[in-house]
Amino acid sequence: MTMIMEQRERQGSGPTLDDLNAAFKERLLRDEERLAAIFDSQPDLYGIDPQQLPAQTWECVAWEYMNPKERDRILAGMFRHTLARAKDAMPIYRMSEAYKSVDPRDITTMADLVNVPLLVKDGKHGFREKVRRMPTLLRPDDMPITMSPYLSGGTGIDEQTVGKSTPTWISERDLDTESRALAFRCFVPGGFHSQMRFMNFYNLAHKGGEEIRRAMNHLGVETFVPRRPEDSMESCLHYMETFGVNAIAAVPQSPRDRKGAPKGGAVSFEDMYMARASLFGGDAQVTNAFVTGFALPESVIRLAERNDLRLFTTWGASEAIPGCTSTVLGPPTRVCKHNNQHLLHFPHFLSVVDTHRNRFCKPGEEGLLLVTTIARDGTLFINYAIGDKATVISNECDCGRTTPVIGNIRREDNPTELSEGGCRFA
After folding, report:
1. DSSP secondary structure string, 79-105?
2. Which of 101, 108, 249, 391 could bridge across to 290 with cysteines, CB 3.0–4.6 Å?
């Protein structure tokens, strides 16, 4: 199948969706064999230390197709290791009164996360001000390796957070782990392939921009064109035409602060389309678009559908990449299109939680989106209320994945609402 895709590219026509779907099925079969071999090498399948797993573990698309109960038992065993390490090596948990009663041995299923205290950034129980005074509260102190503090927040959402970023400590191995998951479990199902000429509109100084670059390297794309901060819209469109760019990564619309100015001078997908619509679509030059950073607006979805553009998105943040993703590949009847995204569960576990009933949400229910780290050298987030809410759309999908589909993801920075749930806080 790879030979057929390469032959079509030499002829000037990229692989069809049928080609890409067939190649994905081959990858899934290989990954199921790889993942089974990795599991067979472990002395205790339900007590794996995730820090000891090989790098290839994170890129296996087979994770999303496993038996849900078996996957849950395996992840719970991994999380016991992570939770024990967090209590011992992360100052923010080690100093927490609420964590003194937390026993990793009580975790038998990932649903037991609801009994672990929430970690929040703002409000009465928030860590923002403490961490700004002492950034190492979020850095594990058991690994004498180089880590970089990737900053998040502080971009002017409101007066309480403007200019008050907090760090997520990340090692070189962490960047590799997350970018492998992004490449093969998000970009490949999104229709990306090695014969692409790709332009990245995300800032490479930011963690997301850097991991997109690395993910493209993992895929072995033909060309990678980064947008420089000083590049104007016209310059970007010129580069796209000059280098024959046929796939992009960009925000959907230019985000604006309270003064109405585009943040960081962002060049958005919608801006580019409005400036030169003839570049985009199934019969045009740019056929694939990874558009993320905010929920896909209906206007962008309609543009993609009208022009036969392969469009998908992935949820991610400086604290955790990737968390869930929509797809381009799969049957037309699949649920996981556009803003409906499958949870990925590994190396981070996203849960949608009803904090009033103290349980995971069921299909049709809305709750807090909580981030829990399964595997990382650096900052371990556990039940971290990142500030988003989401709705569980379905536990079933015709694409064959067995993880829940969530949607209606939106920012809901409201510490008061968190407190009203009667939660314990770290």
Report:
1. HHHHHHHHHHH-HHHHT-SGGGG--GG
2. 249
